[in-house]
Amino acid sequence: MATIHSTALVDPAAQLHDSVTVGPYTIIGPNVVIGAGSTVGSHCTLEGYTTLGENNHVHSYTSLGAAPQDKKYAGEPTRLVIGKGNTIREFCTFNAGTVNGGGVTRVGDDNLFMAYVHLAHDCQIGSHTIFANNSQLAGHVVVGDWVILGGFTVVRQFLRLGAHSFTAMCTLLFADLPPFVTCQGQPASARTVNAEGLRRRGYSPERITAVRAMHKALYRENLTFEAAKERIVQIGKDKPEVLADVEMMLGFLAEVNPKVGIVRSRRRSVD
Length: 271
Description:
single chain; alpha/beta; UDP N-Acetylglucosamine Acyltransferase, domain 1; Udp N-acetylglucosamine O-acyltransferase, Domain 2; 2 domains; twelve-stranded mixed sheet; 27% strand
């Protein structure tokens, strides 16, 4: 049987693995599922159709699965689904999805969410990300694997952040951030590639050189958006060993909304 503090209120219909620990004054609703090895701190609220996988650690005063902050929401049974091995620090708020957004707010595995992070309805978060304190995502934002958000980063609704991208502290994002790109500012502007992060993840010098070449095509050669994509295609042809990275970049760029575009560089604009 799960270890539940005497002051916690856990609905009998909630499904908690026997190894789960629940702290004082926490409230867990009837449609919540919590996997093996997970801990929930004090004064938390887990409600709605919320599922946590194994080995998640939820710290005090966190709110998971509350109704989306969307005026169109009419009480539908939408969900929050969280993978395994995540750390969710104090005062985080993750809202459930909406019918129009697919019905699910989803979080992957092995992420670190520092204090006061907000995930609005229908956000889709990958794995191995780090959200520093007070990072705030509006609805329908998609965040790839290994992304790092600096403290107080704010992301507008319906944007995408590509894998291995990075934002500096207090960044405001109003456009898509391509894979591997670092950005800073209000509004954000592209800076360089996340080379240090790639080295830590085992990228070879050859792969990092190719990533730099893709960044150069997008931001340093004064090419149109379409011409930059053609240049990136050629990088993959010239260096087949980096084709996976090239394909990831091209796949991301292919889905850019022309009305939104990608984060620009202060040195060069990309049409």
